[in-house]
Amino acid sequence: MSRQMVRPGGRSARVQESVHTAVRELASEVGRDALTVPMVAQRAGVTPSTIYRRWGDLQELLSDVAVERLRPDTAPRVHGDMSADLTAWAEQFLDEMASPAGRAYIRDALLGDPDGGNAGQCSAYAADQIGLVLTRATEHGDETPDVETVMDRVVAPIMYRILFRPEGLDAAYARSLVADVLARTGP
Amino acid sequence: MSRQMVRPGGRSARVQESVHTAVRELASEVGRDALTVPMVAQRAGVTPSTIYRRWGDLQELLSDVAVERLRPDTAPRVHGDMSADLTAWAEQFLDEMASPAGRAYIRDALLGDPDGGNAGQCSAYAADQIGLVLTRATEHGDETPDVETVMDRVVAPIMYRILFRPEGLDAAYARSLVADVLARTGP
């Protein structure tokens, strides 16, 4: 991912920010499918070759932008215990990812991603959020499943169904996944 | 999916078969990324407009071809009991889907798929195979999990990790998923 090569505050970071901003603005103005590299370059005030050099093509640029949009901006809220916190997180995760915007970002993140780095980053965001919830619970003395188990039992089914099997995706489904993975652990 | 509109043996089916064959041949000859609609049309002996009319664009055509390649050509093999059959199926499923060819087909199936029909078909193939294994077990009097539970607990984690989190995907992982979902059921 180009983002990982970027030094915060450096010229490279400023170029990336202006290009990402141009993509977000133009996508809302003319629609994502009407975007072209020259259009984005003009809005961002860079040359098209700058974009091709860093991102390779439009799809990789859209993939980078999508990963940025999928990054959680807050830690999971505290609702009381591990079950309540994880349930609330899973309901919100399903709600956001299954939304039209969420589905579009997931597709973009997967598609322009030859090295798989962007998809891995999306997965790391979810694992980090779950890790925060489980660490809190451990600090309260709860027995918790490990992060990878929650990824397999809660995140994977939600993401798999969004991509491959979208029927019946609702908050009750998210709650049942959390209840099931906590059934064998918990306080 | 265009395939669903095709009457077996009809002209439409013959065109589809020749176009799919042309894609598979040319992909192995010049590589998937070098394919163009005119190239495929010439090899298949149809006009490019025939392809555009039915598939819309190359990406949707590649998506249809990918789904055909992902269709299982045999029923899951019988190894003795539900645990052995489901374990063998899951190991083979992971092996095939995680291979470079499998990953490319999954990508293509997801990519050129505006209506989600092709991804749904891939998921239906897996559900059908699992259904066969579980039905056999039920006929032997075993208590079995339902198909959707196996989709959530075995297929979803495998596919999620292939797409988003590819580290540590091996036969042992597939076996552990099956052992875990059967731990609460079985004879």
Question: Summarize this, please?
Answer:
Chains A, B: Residues 13-73 form the HTH tetR-type domain. Chains A, B: InterPro entries: Homeodomain-like_sf (IPR009057), HTH-type_TetR-like_transc_reg (IPR050109), HTH_TetR (IPR001647), Tet_transcr_reg_TetR-rel_C_sf (IPR036271), TetR_C (IPR011075). The structure is a homodimer of 187-residue chains. Chain A is mainly α.
- Number of DSSP helical runs of chain A: 9
Total beta strands of chain A: 0
Radius of gyration of chain A: 19 Å
Q: In CATH, what is the homologous superfamily of the largest domain in chain A?
A: Tetracycline Repressor, domain 2
Which fold does the CATH topology of the largest domain in chain A refer to? Tetracycline Repressor, domain 2
Helix percent of chain A reads over 70%
CATH architecture of the largest domain in chain A: Orthogonal Bundle
Describe the structure.
The structure is a homodimer of 187-residue chains. Chain A is an all-alpha fold and 187 residues long. Chain A folds into two domains: 10-56, Arc Repressor Mutant, subunit A (Orthogonal Bundle), CATH 1.10.10.60; 72-183, Tetracycline Repressor, domain 2, CATH 1.10.357. The first copy, chain A, is 70% helix and 0% strand. Chain A has nine helices and no strands. Chain A has helices at residues 11-30, 37-44, 48-55, 58-70, 82-98, 100-111, 117-139, 147-164, 171-182. The longest helix of chain A has 23 residues, at 117-139. The first copy, chain A, is elongated and about 55 Å long. The termini of chain A are far apart. Chain A binds chain B through residues 107, 110-111, 116, 119-120, 122-123, 151-153, 155-157, 159-161, 163-166, 177, and chain B through 107, 110-111, 116, 119-120, 122-123, 151-153, 155-157, 159-161, 163-166, 177. Chains A, B: Residues 36-55 bind DNA. Chains A, B: Residues 13-73 form the HTH tetR-type domain. Chains A, B: This is TetR/AcrR family transcriptional regulator. Chains A, B: Pfam families: TetR_C_11, TetR_N. Chains A, B: Keywords: DNA-binding, Transcription, Transcription regulation.
